[in-house]
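Q: How would the C-alpha cells look for this protein?
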Amino acid sequence: MTTESAIHVQGLEKSYKKLKVLRGVDFDVARGSIFALLGSNGAGKTTVVKILSTLLRADGGTASVNGFDVATQPVGVRESISLTGQFAAVDEILSGRENLVLVARLRHLKDPRGIANDLLERFGLTEAAARKVATYSGGMRRRLDIAMSLIGNPPVIFLDEPTTGLDPEGRLEVWQAVKELAAHGTTVLLTTQYLDEAEQLADRIAILHGGRILVNGTLSELKQLLPPATITYVEKQPTLEDVYLTLVGEDAEDRDPLATSTASAQTTKESR
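A: Here is the predicted structure in C-alpha cell form.
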C-alpha cells in the first residue's frame, strides 16, 4: 500500500458455499480520486464493497481503508467511511432538511441545522428543503442520500450502483454530485454496470469479471488495449439523449428543438 492509497486490496477471496465469487482481487484507490469497479450483475462488486465496509468477512487476502485493516481494525474503518447502497435510505415522511438534521444529531455533531443547510446548498436541494421526501424525484432522493452519507466528513465513501433505477435526468444529477465529492477531496469507490457511467466519472476503472480484475487503468490506458482507430467520415445524428435533454432540460423554454437537431446533424469527422 502506498502512502497515497486510501483503499488497498490484495488477493481478496470470497465464496458462498461452492460458489467462488472473488478469486484474488487486487487494486488500489488513490486518495481524492474516483475509482470505478465495473462489472455485470453477479460479478462480485457488492461483495467487494461489503468486505471493505466490514459488513462481510473475506475468506482470504487483505484489505485496508484509510490505513485501517478491515479484518483487525473494523472500528477505524467504520469511522473513516460512508456507504450508499443501491436504493436511497431516506425517510419519506420527513423533509429533506429534517433527514439531514436527524443524521447530524444521531452523530452528536454541533449545529445540525447549519450542517443540513450547507449540504442542501451543495447538492442543489435548498428550494426543496422543506418538502417531504415523498415528493422528491429519484435523482433528488439519491442526491439527498449521498448528502446524508457525507455528514461527519468521512474521507472515503462507497457508492454501490448509485444510479440504479433512475431516469436520464436523475442519472446526470447524481453524476454531478459524485464529481462534487471528488472535488472536495473525498475518495470515491463506485460500483456500476453502466459503461458510460464509468467513462464519465472515474479517474481509474477496474473491470471485474469471473471473480478477478481483468484490467485496471485510466480510460486512455484501457483504450490502448484495442487496435488503433481508423479514420472514417460519418454523419452524426442526434442521439436519444440529445433529443430528451433538448426537450425537457432545465432551459427547455429557451431552446429551439428543430434548430438544435439541425445543428447536430451536420457532417463531422469522427474516429471509431
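The longest strand covers residues 5-16.

The CA atoms of residues 206 and 216 lie 4 Å apart.

Upvote if useful.
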